[in-house]
């Protein structure tokens, strides 16, 4: 009996070491990626010459969004835009246009991020001259009529030129807040 125990002990020890090695290997290895495509950031659709209009309760356009190309990614439900052009309509005022090189829409379109050469224009109306705003980044929240940036911005019209860093433009209240490094020049049109 003792001879059998002596014979089986090394074999049992080898089996125990093999199981320990297997467990240790599984514990140390990183988890295997899923092959179902859920970890990939691939588009599920693209649209060239994209255009969408959101109507107001009065049946008139509230805002439009166009882009040379729209690409949607299902993993984070984001939408990337090439050469986006956003237009906000308001009765009694000239439309406000936002154009840029690139754009990004959040899930439900409640946030629009414009990057690159961002140009905001409001055409002349009721004695007001054309207003132009330029920056490298603009965050637009269409449902709240807000536009925000923490980047340098230049605002100009026929008689005013203002440079600042950071801006909040509330289109409902028609109030524009400039946050820092504000420098402006006003030329009296009556001179």
From TrEMBL:
Keywords attached to this entry: Cell inner membrane, Cell membrane, Membrane, Transmembrane, Transmembrane helix
GO cellular component: outer membrane-bounded periplasmic space; plasma membrane
InterPro entries: LipoPS_assembly_LptC-rel, LPS_export_LptC, LptC
Annotated TM spans: 7-24
Molecular function as annotated in GO: glycolipid transfer activity; lipopolysaccharide transmembrane transporter activity
Pfam families listed in its UniProt record: LptC
The keyword GTP-binding is annotated on this UniProt entry: no
Top-level taxonomic group: Bacteria
NCBIfam families reported in the protein's UniProt record: LptC_YrbK (TIGR04409)
Protein name: Lipopolysaccharide export system protein LptC
Species in which this protein is naturally found: Sulfuricella denitrificans (strain DSM 22764 / NBRC 105220 / skB26)
């Amino acid at each position: 009996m003792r001879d059998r125990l002596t014979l089986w002990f090394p074999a049992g020890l080898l089996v125990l070491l093999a199981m320990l090695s297997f467990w240790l290997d599984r514990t140390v290895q990183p988890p295997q990626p899923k092959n179902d495509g859920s970890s990939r950031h691939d588009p599920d659709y693209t649209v060239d010459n994209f255009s969408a209009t959101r109507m107001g309760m009065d049946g008139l356009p509230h805002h439009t969004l166009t882009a040379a190309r729209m690409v949607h990614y299902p993993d984070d439900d984001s939408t990337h835009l090439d050469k986006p052009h956003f237009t906000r309509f308001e009765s009694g005022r000239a439309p406000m246009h936002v154009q840029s090189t690139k754009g990004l829409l959040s899930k439900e379109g409640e946030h629009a991020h414009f990057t690159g050469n961002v140009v905001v224009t409001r055409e002349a109306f009721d004695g007001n001259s054309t207003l132009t705003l330029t920056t490298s980044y603009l965050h637009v929240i269409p449902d709240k009529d807000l536009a925000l940036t923490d980047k340098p911005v230049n605002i100009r019209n026929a008689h005013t030129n203002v440079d600042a860093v950071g801006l909040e433009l509330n289109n409902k209240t028609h109030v524009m807040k400039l946050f820092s490094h504000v420098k402006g020049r006003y030329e009296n049109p009556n001179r």
